């Protein structure tokens, strides 16, 4: 018996085999290569842009050089401000979603250009999920066996469906 660590998800002596065709494997590899290539090209474009800017800066003299440096700093600060603003909007949306019992992972999907628009999007999402859960509950009640004795209502089923969506139920 060896003391080798088992990979995560290892179930003792059971082996998990994943079968796929060569075409499926090729597709996965191609997607990963394309993603890596896009990332590399983006990084290269950024490096090229910085090199061009540095070259232009070297050619400039005195006041022109200062103006160019100033403009570059303004662009960098503006970009950083926009990123922080977006992060703040996402954090606020996550808080509102959580307070309404909705999964905070929906935050990036409900962000609007204003706080009011975000609030409206959250309300629509909540209503949409509630309507979907109600429809699924009604469908399950009409298809399946009657509720178990003692359950008395559809609340338990509704709660289970809500939990499947990652939504906390109100208690």
Topology diagram in text:
Elements: H1 22-59, H2 62-99, H3 107-110, H4 115-143, H5 155-164
Helix pairs in contact: 2-4, 4-5
Describe the structure.
- This protein has a domain of 105 residues.
- It has 171 residues and is an all-alpha fold.
- It contains five helices and no strands.
Q: Which features characterize this protein?
A:
171 residues; 5 helices; mainly alpha; flat
Rg from Cα: 27 Å
Count of separate DSSP helical elements: 5
Instruction: Please provide the ordered H/E string of secondary-structure elements.
Output: HHHHH
List how many beta strands DSSP finds: 0
SS strand fraction: under 5%
Q: Looking at the structure, what is the overall shape?
A: flat
Summarize model confidence as the mean pLDDT.
81
Main sheet summary:
none
> Helical content, roughly?
55-70%
First-last Cα distance: 50 Å
Uncertain spans, ≥5 residues at pLDDT below 50? none
What structural class results from the helix and strand content? mainly alpha
